[in-house]
């Protein structure tokens, strides 16, 4: 394929919501991760190390991070593993911690905004404070992480931002209003950012998982269709992230179809689906 053909192919691919066709190599094999102490974050930390990344892991519970660091260092002695306590709702602390990680590694290749919480319950039943926390962590915490990451990547000249949404971002599930709203906000925030950064050398990836077996959804028990374990989920997520995916449902099958259908269900059917 000659230069003209490649340019044409990239323009055509750029119209499709699959990959960033102009994605350059990462400037550094180092990753910054929030929400790393449990669930998919913990599995991602191991998957990143297995793929050759040095990692800077953050979460609120430092004791769990210290245990994870010991496990990862034993399993991957060639990798650098740093941990730090971080609450993503302390927005200035987020920026300082990302700066610290960048100084330590001499630059970052990837920042993954994974921290998330959930609190179910219907609207108007005295659950507002719990619902507010969901939005603070899932949306505003992600925005703080992504904003600081982009500032670093702009000065560095490249990198990859990865934000966690959900397949339910396009639908308001009864009983799950704050979670659905927060994930819809993440999706649109990353979509706006992608338009700002297209062809700048900074890749923006939205990860929209289906059911992965984590503490955030374990209360649903057997009401989790197409459930996969965290190790499989982390592997599939990183496959899509490293491929430069723009919007990655995980697993792609069947959740790409489910995501499309959920966003288009009429209310009379959607009200039968409980978060």
Q: Termini, distance in Å?
A: 48 Å
What class, by secondary structure content?
alpha/beta
Q: What is the mean pLDDT? A: 90
Q: Note poorly predicted spans.
A: 8-17
Give me the count of strands.
7
Oligomeric assembly: single chain
Helix content: 40-55%
Question: What is the gyration radius calculated from CA atoms?
Answer: 18 Å
- Helix and strand pattern: HEHEHEHEHEHEHEHH
SS summary, helix count: 9
Beta-strand proportion: 5-15%
Taken from the alpha-carbon principal axes, the silhouette is globular
Main pleated-sheet profile: 7 strands, parallel
- Strand arrangement in the largest pleated sheet: 3-2-1-4-5-6-7
Family: Belongs to the short-chain dehydrogenases/reductases (SDR) family.
Protein name: SDR family NAD(P)-dependent oxidoreductase
Pfam families: adh_short (PF00106)
InterPro entries: KR_dom, NAD(P)-bd_dom_sf, Sc_DH/Rdtase_CS, SDR_fam
């Amino acid at each position: 394929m000659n230069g003209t053909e490649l340019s044409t192919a990239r323009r055509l691919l750029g119209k499709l919501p699959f990959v960033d066709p102009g994605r350059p190599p990462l400037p550094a094999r180092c990753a910054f991760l929030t929400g790393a102490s449990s669930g998919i974050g913990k599995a991602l930390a191991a998957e990143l190390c297995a793929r050759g990344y040095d990692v800077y892991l953050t979460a609120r519970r430092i004791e769990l991070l210290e245990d994870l660091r010991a496990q990862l260092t034993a399993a991957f002695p060639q990798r650098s593993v740093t941990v730090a306590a971080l609450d993503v709702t302390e927005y200035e602390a987020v920026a300082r911690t990302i700066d610290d990680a960048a100084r330590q590694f001499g630059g970052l290749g990837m920042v993954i905004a994974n921290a998330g919480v959930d609190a179910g319950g219907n609207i108007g039943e005295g659950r507002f404070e719990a619902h507010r926390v969901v939005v603070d962590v899932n949306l505003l915490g992600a925005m703080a992480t992504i904003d600081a990451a982009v500032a670093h990547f702009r000065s560095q000249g490249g990198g990859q931002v990865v934000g966690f949404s959900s397949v339910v971002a396009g639908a308001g599930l009864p009983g799950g209003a704050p979670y659905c709203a927060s994930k819809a906000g993440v999706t649109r925030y990353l979509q706006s950012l992608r338009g700002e950064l297209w062809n700048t050398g900074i890749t923006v990836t939205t990860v929209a998982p289906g059911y992965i077996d984590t503490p955030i959804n374990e209360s649903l028990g057997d009401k989790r269709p197409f459930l996969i374990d965290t190790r499989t989920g982390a592997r599939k997520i990183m496959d899509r992230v490293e491929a430069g995916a723009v919007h990655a449902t995980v697993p792609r099958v069947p959740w790409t179809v489910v995501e499309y259908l959920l966003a288009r269900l009429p209310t009379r059917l959607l009200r039968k689906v409980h978060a």
